[in-house]
Fold each of these.
Amino acid sequence: MATLTAAQKRTQARIEYDAYLATCPSRQLLSTLGDKWVALVLSALAEGPARYSELRRHIAGVSQKMLTQTLRTLERDGLIDRDVEPTVPVTVRYSLTPTGHSLFAVVSALKSWAEQNMQTVLEARSAYDAAAGS
Amino acid sequence: MATLTAAQKRTQARIEYDAYLATCPSRQLLSTLGDKWVALVLSALAEGPARYSELRRHIAGVSQKMLTQTLRTLERDGLIDRDVEPTVPVTVRYSLTPTGHSLFAVVSALKSWAEQNMQTVLEARSAYDAAAGS
DNA sequence: CTGTATCCGGGCCGATACTG
DNA sequence: CAGTATCGGCCCGGATACAG
């Protein structure tokens, strides 16, 4: 039949909304920044260009896989440059593009907010947890 | 023995780094904002207080579970207020706190960056994919 | 040195059913 | 109306092994 059940309508609405979100610039940016290592890589490269192994050492907790994956994503989005020098063994330098620098500025603003307000947030959290425990 | 293998040292370094990240205000904020629905709930409430069912309708794609979970997290962090009116049936109004409003301002800045630069990013992405396909 | 390929466990999140 | 409880699929991301 042509009519849909309530459940089907809801599912359909969700699919459409997901599609809408997938094209939303803000959401795309947010999900990229939300990635665990993106902000750290941006910060590291904001201090200047660096080689793969330097990044790996500087961001101590990252796994090889995630570092490579993060770098590829950022490169694909035009946020960082990847320069390969044909030495033996090969040398690779990563650096921020202008777009990457401008994104880092935004992230810095976020960082400032966090540093100024996280204390308040943490206190609210403690108060909330204490009330729940009583 | 007292010495550690290279693998053990790396694991240890990762644990310490994770612990460090867990206390980093920026990272905490980023992982919160990265949550799929947080920004959407903030945006919705920035337009004014709303009831649970209103939010559910306004943010069409969200599931009951995730909406509740998101609201709880934001409430816990002191970003939104939850007011219960003892009517029958019960009425619940959510609204942004001052801290919540200030966070929304930051998110708005992020949104502006996304709207201004996502076109460039998308083009870079297309170019990258085209090069890979050749 | 700078990656790629594969396996696999844990957690996120949607669907569903139930409640005051 | 405004939730809570539970199950299950899927994907993220770490560990490991291999390669140019």
Amino acid sequence: MPELPDVEGFRRVAARAAGGRVRRVEVLDAGVLNGVTADRFRRGVRGRVLGTPRRHGKWLAVPLRTDGRRHRADEPVVAFHFGMTGGLQWCAGGEPRHRFDRVVLATDRGELRFRDMRKLQGIRLLSGDDELDALFAELGPDAAGVARPELGELLHGSRAAVKSRLMDQTVVAGLGNLTVDETLWRARVHPSARSDELSDAAVGGVHQAMRTVLRQSSRAGYVPGRPSWLTGHRDDTRAACPRCGTRLRRTRVAGRTSVWCPNCQQR
DNA sequence: TTGCATGTTCCGGA
DNA sequence: GTCCGGAACATGCA
């Protein structure tokens, strides 16, 4: 599931764990650790206090501290990426483990559990803020905060299909297949339209639609399948456009299944 | 059994 | 050399 809104939900989950000291680190499947051994991960995290979580795009960073009230720049940071199937859970009541729980950070107050079926990206242990900054520097601006003029420059900088441009995390960070389809449908822009050929009005429409989609989805912690949204109709191969009633189309754009309305979103 | 999945990365052709 | 689209990746499910 995880796109920006889902990760925003995971940030709120992690915020519940903030302030807790990690008493025990359980690596149930080291396959989710990226660039760090289970041993080193355990040693790096155990005994430290979980700080205020920070999200950029689809990444979630949890700074750690040992003593004192604040995380210092030279203290480690745990960075989570959830791939397509990952998630974070806060369990304070001794709930039973899930079969896809891969890493558990147990504090005095409860457990933060990283759950992931497919193990595509996983967890990194960064040595400090420099490494975190370097990681985030590879990404474009966060989609929830990008300003319209900047989005215009980013979109106009490429001849690629607007959908693949918006999905490119080094251009704008946080959008995925669902949020992009929803955004383009709202903005009435064809997913295969060339990014550099979008009019200023189209860029403005994309920007506004993106902000609305992300704001409302982030509040829920997922992209809602409301009747008035496109997302609720993705799985129905015969669904009609919620806006005009035309039969929706499903094609592959930028290598992913894309749902769009041939009437509302003309090239 | 087959195809598909809301993630990223890598390869090859234009 | 750069850019872009598609395949590949690992795993479970409909």
